[in-house]
Amino acid sequence: PASPQGAEYNMSTKKFKRAARIILVGAPGVGKGTQAERLMKRYPQLSAVSSGDLLREGVRNRTPLGLEAEAFIKAGNLVPDEMILKLILDKLKANRWVSNHSSVTDPSPAQPSQNPSASFILDGFPRTATQASRLDSLIPVNLVVSLITPVNIILSRIASRWVHAPSGRVYNTDFNAPKVPGKDDLTGEPLTKRADDDEETWKQRLKKFDETSQPLLDHYDQKNVLWTVNGNSSNEITPKLFRELDSRFA
Fold first, then answer.
1. Could you tell me the CA-to-CA distances from 24 to 36, 43, 152, 199, 223 in Å, in that order?
2. Is residue 147 classed as helix, strand or coil in its secondary structure?
């Protein structure tokens, strides 16, 4: 399909020949979610494993781990790494993507399945080099993609972003403009800015991301699994990403 920026990419589906265990790293506003969705459409064997979703699911279903995690959240504390690792491992075990004997306390890494249908994108974890080391000892990741879009482009994208708060519909005056300026397409109600969409807040967020992500990227670079892709838009990045995954896994 032709994209808003006029770039084209081929959406025909492809099959993996071996299991892909992928992490996407990118600054807020770079479009990680968009790339993950497109990857799962192109490679149907790929699933998303989101630490945030697993946490919310655990809390909602009142699982023992979920209840433990909820106690940390209610106290205003971060959920400990070990707990998140255990959530991820439980999910992988349930899907039979790692052996049932794997445990967080086991010093030897889980033997992940090489079956192409045991392919996943890990979202939300790890965020630090320490977490990455713990993950390595559990489930070896075989591709870390660093998505790079220039800061000025991310900031201009945020500046042109407007939302219809009641429905959550998002517009962008550059490439996804409302039919009537300043009004929601479906209800005609006025569009507003998100409270945290001001430039200063975003500059701080991007600066913080750079500081915390560099050690993470260095860690994976040393493991020879880091691949960096640059682009000014999601549509510029997608075809490069598809080519790389085709050559590595398909």
1. 8, 15, 21, 24, 16
2. strand
